[in-house]
Amino acid sequence: MSKSIRASGDAIADRRAGHAHNYATDGDFGAAAEVMAQALERAPDWAAGWDLLGGYHEKAGDVAAALAAWRRLEALDDEGVFGAGLKLAVHGASSAAAGTAEGYVEALFDQYAPGFEAALVDRLDYRVPELLDGLLDETMAELGIDKFAAALDLGCGTGLMGARLRAKVARLEGIDLSAAMIAETRRKGIYDYLEKAELTQYLARRDAQADLITAADVFIYCGALPPVLAAVGPALRPGGLLAFSLEVHDGEEAVFLRPSLRYAHGVDATRLALADAGLQVLQFKLATLRQDRGAPIAGMLIVARKPA
Ligand SMILES: C[S@@+](CC[C@H](N)C(=O)[O-])C[C@H]1O[C@@H](n2cnc3c(N)ncnc32)[C@H](O)[C@@H]1O
């Protein structure tokens, strides 16, 4: 199922959905939900319609009705491209197990790819590749590293991290869940090798080949950190580095899902997960990663090393 299917196939339902959209644009989400529900009477199997209805109910403050809409959505959306499980989980109505986000993340970035850099860099002041690159420069100077032999950029996206790494790396590989993001970055010719792959599955097929692994703004879509670090460790050569970012929160939880459908991690839990994975922290910095809906997003930037 493609998330881009925004028409129901029923002309009357589409017209009603258009009216609902107009109400929502005017900020009247209660009326939008009422008219959208009428649209869905004509097209009860229209997944995108249930997604819209859930969103209108949520914005109108009727969480119970939003959850009911997303449960209908979940039943219709086998591949999870609309992220119903995540939306339910934000409200504590589902556990959002690891893996449920994959279909959603892939569809999100497939849709986002052509406008990704303009949206994130130009409008939202996205700084993760720049900040991680700065930390890597410091680490290289401290450790006397001239160049990395083999680097792997997880969730490479359109290649913003790769562009910064290129001069410090002999061989640069990138992987990403989204084919459209890979297509954007392929055009730039930054990477020696690119593949569409889910990162833990890709890492599981690798030997300890990389002396640098990066993940800029990627693990925020993966949930709990320990399984990710368990996958990264064996793919690093002894002495190899992992450089990555996370969104940070200051609550008790190791990790929780935000309404943005991105995960935020706790500082203590992150340090513990790194230690448990046998990775030694070389750099640990708190910084603003980007803006989101007018507010700064605080994050952690980390460089860790697998013992030699
Ligand atoms: C916010 S973008 C960042 C892209 C790039 N690293 C950068 O800094 O510009 C997140 C990227 O991670 C990818 N991604 C998220 N979860 C992934 C996973 N489990 N496996 C592979 N790629 C993933 C997404 O498809 C998306 O391209």
Structure description:
The protein is α/β, with parallel strands linked by helices. It folds into 2 domains: 11-96, Alpha Horseshoe (Serine Threonine Protein Phosphatase 5, Tetratricopeptide repeat); 119-305, 3-Layer(aba) Sandwich (Rossmann fold). It has helices at residues 11-25, 29-42, 47-60, 63-76, 84-90, 102-112, 116-123, 128-143, 160-165, 179-186, 199-204, 225-232, 267-276; strands at 148-154, 169-176, 193-196, 210-215, 236-249, 255-257, 263-266, 280-292, 295-305. Strands 1, 2, 3, 4, 5, 6, 7, 8 and 9 form a 9-stranded mixed beta sheet that branches. The longest helix is centred in the middle third of the chain and has 16 residues, at 128-143. It binds S-adenosylmethionine (SAM). Residues 105, 109, 128-129, 155-157, 160-161, 176-178, 181, 198-199, 216-218, 221-222 line the site of S-adenosylmethionine.
